[in-house]
User: Fold this.
Amino acid sequence: MTKQTLNELRGRVDEINLQLLSLLNERTAIVQEMAEEKGKRGIKKYDPVREAQIIAELRKVNQGPMTDATLIHVFKEIFKVSVKLQEEQDKKKKSLLVSREAKSEDTHININGDVVGNGEPTLIFGPCSIETEEQVELVAKNIAEKGLKYIRGGAFKPRTSPYDFQGLGVEGLKMLHAAASKYGLNVVSEIMDAKDLAEALPYLDVVQIGARNMQNFTLLKAVGQIDKPVLLKRGLSATLEEFVNAAEYITSHGNKNVILCERGIRTFEKATRNTLDISAVPILKKETHLPVFVDITHSTGRRDILLPIAKASLAVGADGIMAEVHPTPELALSDAAQQMSIEAFDEFYEKLLS
Ligand code: PEP
Ligand code: MN
Assistant:
């Protein structure tokens, strides 16, 4: 065989390869279409009987020089590609909007110019409950002096006992909003009932959904339709799957700006108020694209370990921290035992930065 003939043959093989590639892609497109149809009708994607029939037919017409064994090998590989492709299509379809599969980049949330989730930790402090104008003014001033951008404070309080302080409602929110506006802070506060949303929204920058309402689906759907970010707390006994699905309720109703907040779960341990599930942070970061915060106060219920818990949370990748601060914690109308005084807060903050 001359060199020229060999080159000619090579040229033909190259041409056939291109034809094969084009045919294989044409086949793939048809398989995708079939998978779509099978999905709609609930028919299983992989059909070994049909696969055996196709191979039997091909063997009948095979005139070589390719052996039957090679034919079987080649076509089984082609079938495998189809099955894999269909599985990937299914997985993509089933994946939640909040999942990394659906969106690989981190969600950044712009809150009046401050960006949550961009690598800089967001720090949210403030009293458990809004009590008086002076109380929120003192805390707001201190937060602003630290150069921070957020204040929290509950106006609708989910209390275990119906006889305990239930919060000041919208009047409380007005107080918090006034102090926050004076010091250029964003307001984070919990809403417990969808019917209060419209009246409360003008005074809020971030709507908190509390642990006890993580599966209040009516409320989740309602905050899914607002244009302000939502900080969603993990339920007291919620699995991460349930937590992520709760976030999906919000995003699937239109609001993509959701922050997940781990706040401890119920376990048998009594040394802390709840048990901080620290592994939830990297798991949620890996499986979703949403910012993940840790509420170091409610997860521990202990002022004496706030600093190491805050550091640990940031070390495992939390995008933010929330903690309670009150000018006179011992007189607080809720969570008196766990809030930091302003002095303790100063010390905490200084050590957190160092
Ligand atoms: C709160 O942050 O005020 C609160 C009640 O927290 P949780 O819903 O996590 O108990
Ligand atoms: Mn509290």
